[in-house]
Amino acid sequence: MSEHAQDSMQVRLSQLAERLLGRFSVLGCEVVQANNEVTLVVPTDKLIEVAQTLRDEADFAFEQLIDVCGVDYSTYGQTEWQTTGAPNTGFGRGVERPGRIEIDEEKRFAAVYHLLSISQNHRVRLRVFVNTEQPIVDSVIAIWNGADWFEREAFDLYGILFDGHPDLRRILTDYGFIGHPFRKDFPLIGQVEMRYDPEQARVIYEPVTSVEPRTLVPRVARDDNRYLHGDVEVKDNGNA
Question: Which pLDDT tens digit goes with each residue over 26-41?
Answer without folding.
Answer: 999 999 999 899 999 9
